[in-house]
Specification:
About 75% of the residues lie in helices and about 0% in strands. By secondary structure, it is mainly alpha-helical. It has one domain (about 1-165).
C-alpha cells in the first residue's frame, strides 16, 4: 500500500512537471528570485526548489498531531502561499520560447528523482490518517502534490481553468 501511494504520488509529480517553513516562515522573496532566473534550467531548478521546500513544510505541519480543524487553516494558507510562488515563476516561464520551456521542464523533471522519498512517505501516511478524520482535508493535502502546475500556465488552463481565471491567467 505504501509503495503504491509513493508510486501514485510520483506519477502525479511527473504529470505536473509536464506542465522550508509554513507560509509565514518563508525566508526568500519569490519575486526577487524570479527576477534573478537566468535561463530555462535555472527556472526548472527554482520550481523544484520551491516544491521541495513546500513538501518539507507540508511534512512538518501534517505531522504535528493537530486536529483536522486546527490543520485546515494552516494547509489553506500554505497552499495559497505556494500557489503565488509558482504563479510568479510561471510568469517567468511565459517569457520563454517553447524550446526554453521544454528545457525548464526537463530540469524540473530531473530534480524530482532526487527528492527525499521519506518525506513523501511521511506525508502520505498523514494523508491516510486524516482521510479517516476529514476526507476533504486529506484531499486538500493531496492537492499540494500538483501545485507545480501553477508554474505552467498552459497546463493550469487545461487542468484547472477556474483557477487560471481566478488568478488572472489568460
Amino acid at each position: 500500500m505504501k509503495w503504491s501511494l509513493t508510486a501514485i504520488t510520483f506519477l502525479l509529480i511527473l504529470l505536473a512537471a509536464g506542465c522550508g517553513g509554513e507560509a509565514a516562515d518563508r525566508s526568500d522573496d519569490t519575486s526577487d528570485q524570479a527576477e534573478e532566473i537566468a535561463g530555462p534550467e535555472a527556472l526548472g531548478n527554482r520550481v523544484a526548489d520551491v516544491y521541495e521546500e513546500m513538501y518539507a513544510s507540508l511534512n512538518e505541519v501534517v505531522n504535528r498531531g493537530l486536529t483536522a480543524e486546527e490543520l485546515w487553516p494552516l494547509i489553506a494558507a500554505m497552499k495559497e502561499d505556494y500557489i503565488s510562488q509558482f504563479v510568479e515563476l510561471g510568469a517567468v516561464r511565459e517569457g520563454m520560447t517553447e524550446e526554453q520551456k521544454q528545457a525548464a521542464n526537463r530540469a524540473l523533471t530531473s530534480r524530482f528523482y532526487d527528492l527525499d522519498q521519506d518525506i513523501f512517505n511521511s506525508v502520505n501516511d498523514a494523508i491516510i490518517l486524516y482521510r479517516d478524520l476529514d476526507n476533504s482535508l486529506a484531499n486538500e493535502i493531496s492537492q499540494m502534490n500538483i501545485l507545480t502546475q501553477y508554474a505552467d500556465y498552459e497546463l493550469l488552463k487545461q487542468q484547472e481553468p477556474q483557477e487560471a481565471v481566478r488568478l488572472g491567467i489568460q
